[in-house]
Amino acid sequence: MNKLKSFIISLAAIIIIVMMAATFVENSKGTAFAQTHIYSSLWFVIAWAILAVVSFIYMLKHRLFRRISVWMVHMAFLIILLGALTSWLTSKSGDVYLRQGVPSKELVLKDKTIEQLDFTLKLKDFKVINYPGTDAPMDYVSEITADNEPVNISMNNIGQYQGYRFTQAGYDEDMKGTHLGVYYDPYGIAITYIGYFILFVALLNMLISKRTNMRRFYHLAVDQQAAKTLLLTILLAMPAFLSPVQAQELRKVDNQIADDFGKICVLYNSRICPINTVATTFVTKLSGKPSWNGMTANQIFCGWVFDVANWENAKMIEVKSKEAQEVLGITGKWASFSDFWNQYNEYKLDKPLKEAYRSGNKELQKNLRDADEKFNIIRMLYNGELLRMYPYTDKNGNITWLAPGEKNVHGYLPPKEWYFVRKSMDYLAESIIMNNEDRAKTLISKIYDYQHIRGEKVIPSQTAIYAELTYNVINTLRWPIILYLTVALLAVIASTIRLNDRKRKIQTIISTSLAGIMLLQTTIVIGLRWYISGHLPISNGYETMQFLAWSVLLITLLLRKRFSIILHYGPLLAAFALLVAMITDSNPQLTQLMPVLQSPLLSVHVMVIMFSYALFGLMALIGIQGIIAHIRKDTALESKLAALSQFLLYPAVALIAVGIFIGAIWANVSWGKYWSWDAKETWALITMLIYAAPLHNDIRWMHKPLHIHIYMLIAFLSVLMTYFGVNYFLPGMHSYA
Questions:
Q1: CA geometry: angle at 546 spanning 542 and 549, to 5°?
Q2: What is the mean pLDDT of the chain?
Q3: Nearest Cα to 199, choosing from 632, 662, 723, 566?
Q4: I need a surface site. Which of 257, 336, 351, 491 has the fewest CB within 10 A?
Q5: Is the pTM of this model over 0.90?
Q6: How many whole angstroms separate alpha carbon 649 and alpha carbon 716?
C-alpha cells in the first residue's frame, strides 16, 4: 500500500512538473510545438492514464467507497480524465475553406491530410459587422448551408451539424470566402460534462457533510484564539471580502493616475477622444451624474476596468422604473451589476423584455429598456468596445484601433508591438492593484507615446485633448445650472414686487451679471465643443438647447436697456434650456446597442477563481503566522493555525475546481473546445493539484503543523504564477489577470 501511494505521489509530481515546464516550452518553441510534443503526445497521455488507473486501484484497496463524498470527488476526476482520453482518441479538428458558389466536402486536418465530410458545405454569405460609424470590425459572420440546412457561424457563436462544430477562423479580402475551424468530438464532451456534474455534486456534499475531515479541522481551529487570528488576518489582508455594497470599501485609484489614464485616447462614437470622455459618459449613464461617492469619473472608470470584482457589486446603477426594480429584486432605485443576474446566472431582464416586445406592451418596454441599456453599457466595456486604444495601420493603409488583449492582428504588427498591445493593460492593472504608482505612470506614458507614434496622422493634438478635458469638466458641472435657475427664478419673482430705485438697481445688476456669467459659460462650452468636433454644434437635441440658451442670453444682454423685461426672463428661459440639455446629457446613448458578446459564465468563472485565490492568500498569511508561532514554541497556536488552514483548504480547492470546469464549459460554448492547454488554464490546474495534496490524510509529511504552514506558503507561489506570472512570462488566450 505504501509503495502504491508513493508511486501515485511521485507520478503526480512528475506530471505537475511536466506541465510547468510545458508552459515555458510553449513560450520558447511555440504553441504548435508544445501541443505536438507534450500535451497531445502519446507519452503524456499514457502518464495520465497510468495515474488514473493506479489511483483507481488504490481507491478500491483503500475502500474509499465507504466515504461517499470523497469517493465521488475522485470518481468525478477519473471520469473527466476518461472524457479527455475519449476526446484524444475519437475527436478530430481541422479547417474548412469555402468560397461562395463552390460546394465543398474537404476537411483539412491538423496533420494537413484531407478528409471527405459526409455532407456538403456551401457558403451562402459572409459579412463583417463593424462598430457603428467606424471601420472597426465587431464580428465576422458566415452564413453557410450543410446539405442545404442553414448554419450560422460568427466569432462568438459556434455552428453545429451532425456533431461537427464550426468556428469562425478567417475570411478572404473580397468577402467571398471564409475559413472555418472544425471540431468533431461526439463522445468526449458528453463524458467530461458528466464528470463536471458529479464533481460539483460531490464537492457540495463534501462541504456540507458532517462526516468529512473538514468538520474536524473546523472544531480544532475555531476556538477563541484561532478565531481572533482568522478575524485579524481577514481584516488586514482581505478588505475586499467585506460587503462590496459599502461604497467606502471600494478601491479608490490615485487621482493623478486616474487623470493620466483619462488622457489616453480611444476610438469612441466614430471619433478619437480621451478616455475621460468615455468615463464621464459611462458614469453619467449608470448613476445619473458624472461623479459618485466622492470619486471622479476617471477614478470610477478605472475601478470598473482594473477592479471588476468589487465594482460589479457596487450599488451605483440608477434604476428608476418600479417594474425594473421588481424584476431585479432590489429595494429602492440603486442596483449593482450583480443584481442583474439570478442564481442560475441568467440575465433577469431577458425574458421580461422579450415578453414585453412579444405582447406589444410599449410602456413596459420603455420601463425595462433603460435598465437594460445600462446593463449593456457595462457589457460593452467588458467586450472592449469602450477601450479601443491602440492604433495600427493595416496593409491597405487604413488605421484601425484595437482593444487591450487583441489577438487578430499579429500578422500586421511586429512581435514586440503585438505583445505590447496584448499585455500593457494587464501590467497597468497589476501596477494599480499593487499600488505601484511609479510603474503605473510609466505604463500610461508608454501607451500615450505609442498612440502618438502609431496614430500620428489621426491622434488629436495635446491642445485638443486638454480642450476636451476642460470641456468635460465644465459641461458636467450641475450646480451652476441649478444656481442659475434658482437666481433667475428669484429675479423673476422680485420683478413682480414693488421695489425702490436702489433695490431695483441692485436687482438689475444681479440679473445682468447672471446673464453675463451664463453667456460666458455657455460660450465656452459651445466653443470648446465646436473646436473638438470640428463643426458648429447644433446637430442634436443637447446642442440645440445649448445654442438656444446662448442665443437667448446674447439677445438679453444686447436688448437689456431697451427692453428691461427681457433681462428678467431671459436668464430664466436660458436656465431652463440648459436644464433640459443637462437632463438630456444625464442619460446619453453611447452607441447603438449590439448583441451581448460575452457569456455570463465568464464572469462567474473569474469570480469563483478569484475567491479561491483569496482563500489561498489567507492560508499563506496564516502559514507565516504559524511559522512564527513555531519559532516562538507556541505549539498550541501553531496546531490551531494549521487546522485553520486545513479547514479553509476544503472550500478553496472546491472553488478553484468549480471555477476551472465553469471556465471549460464557457470555452466549449464560445470556442467549441473545452480545454486547450492555454498557459493560464494549465497553471490553474497545477495550482488545484498542488493544493489538493494536503487534503489526503495518508500523506504523513502533512501531519506536522509546521509542514502544513511551510507547504501553504510555498504553494502560494503557484497562485502568484497563475495570477501574475503567466501575464509576464507566458503566452496565452487569457489577457485578463
A1: 140
A2: 81
A3: 662
A4: 351
A5: no
A6: 12
- Return the closest-CA partner of residue 684 out of 621, 623, 726, 729: 726
407 vs 453, higher pLDDT: 453
Burial 8-40 (b: 16+ CB within 10 A, else e): beebbeebbeebeebbebbbeeebeebbeebbe
pLDDT in tens, 225-280: 444 444 444 444 444 333 333 444 577 888 899 999 999 998 887 778 899 999 98
Beta-bridge mates of residue 273:
266
User: 275-287 and 297-306 are packed helices; what angle lies between their axes, rounded to 10 degrees?
Assistant: 90
> Would you list the DSSP string of 192-247?
HHHHHHHHHHHHHHHHH-SSSHHHHHHHHH-SHHHHHHHHHHHHHH-GGGS-TTSG
d(CA 44, CA 25): 15
Amino acid identity for residue 693 in this structure: A
CA dist., res. 585 & res. 277, Å (int): 12
Q: What separation, in Å, do the N-terminal and C-terminal C-alpha atoms of the chain show?
A: 42
315: its cell numbers: 450599488
Q: 618-630: buried (b, 16+ CB within 10 Å) or exposed (e) per residue? A: bbbbbbebbbebb
State how far the Cα of 402 lies from the Cα of 212, in Å rounded to an integer.
51
**Tell me, what's the pLDDT at 411?**
58
- Residue 38 to residue 682: CA distance in whole angstroms: 13
CA 274 distance to own-chain centroid: 21
Among 532, 594, 588, which residue's Cα sits nearest to residue 279? 588
Cα gap 141→155, rounded to integer Å: 7
For residue 68, give the nearest of 76, 79, 57 by alpha carbon.
Answer: 76
Beta carbons within 8 Å of 393's beta carbon, 6+ residues apart: 399, 400, 412, 454
- List, for residues 608-659, the tens digit of each pLDDT value: 787 788 778 878 878 888 898 899 888 888 888 888 888 888 888 898 998 8
**Contact partners, residue 341, CB within 8 Å, separation at least 6:** 347, 348, 600, 603
Place 516 in a pLDDT band, splitting at 50, 70 and 90.
very high
Nearest to 529 by CA among 583, 581, 572: 581
Length of the chain: 737
Strand pairing partners for 146? 121, 149
Which of 288, 285, 294 is CA-nearest to residue 250? 294
Asked if residue 336 lies in contact with residue 314, where contact means CB atoms within 8 angstroms, the answer is: yes
pLDDT in tens, 196-225: 888 888 888 877 776 667 767 766 665 544
SS3 labels along 16-60: HHHHHHHHHHHHHHCHHHHHHHHHCCHHHHHHHHHHHHHHHHHHH
pLDDT beyond 50 at 128: yes
How many Å apart are CA 15 and CA 46, to the nearest integer? 11
User: If you compute the radius of gyration of the chain from its CA atoms, what whole number of angstroms results?
Assistant: 31
Which grid coordinates are listed for 239?
Answer: 478588505
